[in-house]
Amino acid sequence: MREGASRVALEVNSVLREYLAVQNRLFKFSFKKALGLVKPDPSGASASVIPLLERLEAVREEIKELSPESDTAEGRFLIVLRGYAKAMSSAMVSFQELCSKLEEGRKDRSYRKRGYPEDMRQFQLKEAEYLEIGLKLNDLKKALNMDSKK
To answer: Rounded distance, CA 102 to CA 108, Å?
Structure first.
């Protein structure tokens, strides 16, 4: 794989790891949260996603500049990676919207029972989109590794 292609793939992986860490800080169970010693911060989580969205946009632009060709394994990988970055960006925007509603829900306790389940379902659908593309991306990466070993 060319250096540019490797660089963008590693950047997307880095963004993914940071994004998952943001999600975990908000959603993952902890005894400190359960005991009320630590309060989840939806506004802070939403703000943490902004630079990640900017990095993904830069990755999409860089892939565009690499001009991937669909007749090569690397080109197919980059084309799918660009779609993955776009789907992840969409999921991040959905996450930000959910965070905003959670923040508003602190004032209106009924949100947890009424709106939250549907909002969470919509968010999970967005997450599933980029995860599905990620599976295809993993297969392409394996094929690319096999091609480079030949």
So the answer is: 9
pLDDT at 150: 60
> CB under 8 Å to 148, separation ≥6 — which residues?
1
What's the pLDDT tens digit per position in 101-142?
Answer: 999 888 877 888 888 999 999 999 999 999 999 999 999 988
pTM of the model: 0.90
- Residue 148: pLDDT over 80: no
Q: Which domain holds residue 77?
A: 3-143
d(CA 9, CA 60) in angstroms, rounded, equals 11
The number of distinct structural domains making up the chain is 1
Could you tell me if residue 41 is inside a domain?
yes
